[in-house]
Amino acid sequence: MKTKTTLFIITILLAIALSSCSSEPLNAQAVIDEFNAAGLDVRDVKIEERDSESPLPNSFQERWSFSVPEVAPRGGQIFVCDTKENCDALYLYFDMLKAIGGPYYYQSPSGLVVAQMNSGLTPDTASKFAEVISSLP
User: Fold this and answer.
1) What does pTM read for this prediction?
2) For position 126, which CATH number holds?
3) Rounded alpha-carbon distances, angstroms, from residue 43 to 31, 33, 65, 118
């Protein structure tokens, strides 16, 4: 009986380890796809170049901007980082500037994605973006 239990536990742990290895890493395109799947209609998506002169922390892997019809040509931007700590720096940056940049900035539960949305969005629209970000891994 003890051997069967041990074998069962080893099998479960192995399955968990293998499933975590096979998951695709999160990227900016996946986040944009999730926004559109939620009916948020993001448009004019473009990859933003790094600006070494910007005060924005340069701790991200990807930075994409997009427009939202409600506030076009503005909309928002997403950042994907390789570590939570790197995205924490971005989130803190937007938090310090919320009086200027607006209240709509979000971080995914894993901490690897930060979204900053235009302050002109309605609270309802902004909350839909927040829901998508909170549903990410």
Assistant:
1) 0.81
2) 3.30.200
3) 13, 11, 9, 14
